[in-house]
Design goal:
This protein is α/β, with parallel strands linked by helices. It has helices at 2-15, 22-32, 39-52, 57-74, 77-90, 94-107, 110-123, 128-140, 144-157, 162-174, 178-191, 197-209, 212-228, 240-256, 259-270, 277-294, 356-369, 382-395, 439-446, 466-472, 521-529, 537-551; strands spanning 323-325, 337-343, 373-378, 401-407, 410-413, 416-419, 437-438, 452-458, 500-504, 559-562. Among the domains are: 194-295, Serine Threonine Protein Phosphatase 5, Tetratricopeptide repeat (Alpha Horseshoe), CATH 1.25.40; 337-571, 3-Layer(aba) Sandwich (Rossmann fold). Helix 14 (240-256) runs antiparallel to helix 15 (259-270) and helix 21 packs antiparallel against helix 22. The radius of gyration is 26 Å and the shape is globular. GO terms for molecular function: cysteine-type endopeptidase activity.
Amino acid sequence: MRRLLVALSLLAATLWSAPAAAQARNQLGPLCTTDTTPADQMIDACNKIIALKVFRGEQLATIHFWRAVGWNKKGDYSKVITDATEAIRLQPSQAAYNLRGSAYYDKGDYDIAIADFDDALKLGPPSGTIFHNRGNAWRGKHDYAKAIADYDMAIKADPKAAFSFQNRGISKQALGDLDGALADINQAIRLDPSLPQPLINRTAIWRAKGDLDRAIADGSEAIRLAREKPPANIMTPPNSVLISGYTHRALAFEAKGDYASAREDYKATLAIVASDAGSKANQATAKVRLSLVTETSAPIPRDAPSPATQPTATPAPQQKPGAAQLPSPAPAARGVRMALIIGNGAYAHVKALANPANDARAVAKSLRDIGFTVSEGIDLDRSAMQKITRDFLREAARAQVAVVYYAGHGVQVDGRNYLIPIDVELKPGTAMTEAMIDMDTIMAGLDDQVRTNILIFDACRNNPMAQQVASAGANRAIEGVSGLAAPASLGSGVTLGAGTLIAFATAPGQVALDGEGANSPFSAALSRHVGTPGLEVQQMLTRVRAEVVSSTKNKQVPWSNSSLLGEVYLAEK
């Protein structure tokens, strides 16, 4: 970014020959157009210059650009976009497009960001900074090959670009190339040992490699550097480095079994104000993980076998009104592969469903047959459903592959997805969502960047709560007559994390069929194909989709979205 600011600085030096008051020229100009000016002073000075109404065209564009820089320092990306847009209207420039694209990136609007970076590259000579920033947006979209290509261009333009080496390493890690990732991250650290960000990324690599002591050491050094000298780069979102550092060190502490230290780091993460999409996603994960480790009393010794791999001597006691089975052991040679399976059909206060219990049992059996450790719950009330979900999320911290399958009623409320326990009852004056299970919580609890997550929801039946909503006069927006929202609208900063696939029994917002036989059309097809040896998971879902479309005569079309980082096989080849 700094190299693009230079051109604007040269223009700013000529601004003050315009007919404005001498005092305003001498005092306001440098405050507005110097990137080291504190944000509030910069914005105030630019406001006063604009209020003079003496500048036009390219000069006024420069002032709007610098005010956008001030807003960027504060993390107010909507105002960055507004000022950068006005600067572009008055006089398009590489710097303005780059700044606006970076703001869209920080808001999580990656496609718009890429369009702005494309326009910036068209306006001037190739810029390593813009290639780097566009690489970030491709990485946000999980298109790691394009991200790496852009980082290559950035490094070619500036072989000492530490951040480009760092982010290329992150992309290689996402593609499973841990050694290549480590080489790039190490180079970034060699180029600038004072940067905390590469150390944070190396923390994640060590955790993925299982070297938790090194992960914790790197996380601790990153936090020390970030606290000692906050990042000066104006393109770094406020507080984002500390939030990331505490989150990654907490995950390493948790994986090691040091829950007390993990709790302190998660609390530190949540105590910091987040402004950008990445930081909000980290805080969403921290919130869920904190609640899980807070409930955990005794730490697990580092070298002890994971509880998830140990046989259960006795079955779980009956939980009224439903039953939840504890995990069965999985063969250790395959690594820890865990599944949470829930089927809710015996609803007490809304329309009952005949098939979810059968669906859940069929899918659970198919996964057990291929070696998964399965936590199974049938017809669970809210308390039982919450417990089995939280127990699973806690144990899944040590899994290599996690599968979540739910059959039953599901709804959208204010664009968020909720799974419905069998005891749900909406009463006048009650909060609707308090009676349900938030799907965002499940996704946030699994979003730690070192696991493959497969989430499958046969939960798009007709809205079971329409009459209750109307009679209760609820003031929250329950959408339409049917199921779940697309992952893009998951809310709370939760996004489809790298290494995750999510599948719905039908297209988002559409109605899935419960079926006339013992199973729903979707679950019948899923249980038949999920255990097929050597069938990659996305190919498996394609077969499921084709079978459902055929059996329902095009009335139901299953839908999925993936950020998986390679081929995933649930059953061995």
